[in-house]
Write a structure and sequence with these properties.
By secondary structure, the chain is α+β, with helices and mostly antiparallel strands. It has 7 helices and 19 strands.
Length: 337
């Protein structure tokens, strides 16, 4: 008997091995004592970090390069196998050369290289990192993006300072504390009514995306709204379709700038007319499971560029979502690849 599909694999940016429990970051004496043996994850002004070229490991730095104790802007990321990891701003220590790298969705990116390291971004390179590195990079970027948006107090406008080793900020004027925030967003794989898991999936594209790139539908949760209600509203708003049997699948942090993607699946009537939201959705259409499988078989995201897969009798072409997105994991699970 056919069973409802599940994710099957952990989304790329959901991998995290380091222990980041609150009791560690609220014990500054312990962390200062261990600073000399800790490692530092650098982030440059473009949120890129150095990776050992040809590997999936972050090129972390010794803490001695930054002083005898954590600087004021150091952020504690967690502990892994007896080593503490921190994040600090940083740049390559010298002249760099520019190299090309196939990033997410097959778009060729230019990245700096210096002394056997390439400086990469999380969205384009996250899927190539090992589990520990992926979790550290994701956490570092999420905290960096929050801090860049929380430099001033929302109550009195005074400057804020980092406390709790980067996991909170305190207003220098009124003393108000603020903690890192995450904006929830739903992403839903909508399939038709055939059988348990359907035979077709609803894909769409935004006008700003590269040519032939399609994905499943997503949107932010509004105030006072349930997750399931958000799924129903977003699909209705974006393509004019009513969905039912909304079912949760899993989640993934998405720090661009500070979201978490909550994955769902739902059913819809394939005969219902699709009405793309003007200015938001350029095109939407149903794609068969066999066409999605063909697109996965044809994926070449790490070569010179993504090769589109002809679908709909050759009238359209399809490039799947990038490897770092939960959308790709959801599509792979539904397609059975």
């Amino acid at each position: 008997m056919e069973r409802p599909f599940g994710l099957g694999a952990l989304p790329t940016l959901s991998r995290s091995m380091a222990d980041r429990q609150e009791s560690l970051r609220t014990n500054p004496d312990r962390l200062v004592t261990r600073w000399a043996d800790a490692r530092v994850v650098l982030l440059d002004e473009h949120a890129r970090t150095p990776v050992v070229e040809g590997s999936g490991a972050l090129a972390t730095r010794k803490t001695q390069d930054f002083g005898t104790e954590p600087p004021a802007d150091a952020v504690f990321l967690g502990e892994w196998q007896g080593t503490d990891f921190w994040s600090l701003p940083g740049r390559p220590a010298g002249e760099t050369e520019t190299v090309e790298m196939a990033g997410s969705w097959g778009v060729v990116e230019e990245v700096p290289r210096h002394e056997g390291e390439i400086w990469v971004d999380l969205r384009g390179y996250g899927d190539l990192l090992d589990d520990v590195s992926a979790g550290l990079f994701t956490t570092a970027q999420a905290l960096r993006n929050w801090r860049r948006q929380a430099k001033f107090c929302a109550r009195c406008g005074s400057e804020t300072e980092l406390v709790q080793l980067g996991w909170a900020s305190r207003c220098t004027g009124c003393g108000r504390e603020e903690y890192p925030r995450t904006d929830p967003a739903v992403i839903c794989l909508v399939h038709d009514d055939a059988g348990v898991n359907g035979e077709h999936v609803l894909l769409a594209r935004q006008p700003i995306w590269p040519p032939d790139r399609y994905s499943i539908l997503a949107g932010f949760v509004e105030s006072g709204e349930s997750l399931e209600g958000c799924v129903e509203r977003e699909i209705r708003e974006e393509v004019g379709v009513e969905v039912r049997d909304v079912r949760y699948l899993g989640s993934q942090p998405w720090p661009f700038p500070r979201s978490i993607m909550l994955g769902f699946t739902a059913r819809a009537d394939i005969s219902a007319p699709l009405v793309p939201a003007e200015g938001e959705i350029e095109e939407a259409f149903w794609v068969s499971r066999e066409e999605v499988r063909a697109a996965f078989a044809n994926s070449q995201l790490r070569n010179a560029g993504a090769v589109p897969t002809p679908i709909a009798g050759g009238t359209r072409q399809l490039v799947l979502p990038g490897n770092s997105s939960i959308a790709r994991v959801m599509l792979a699970a539904w397609a059975g690849v």
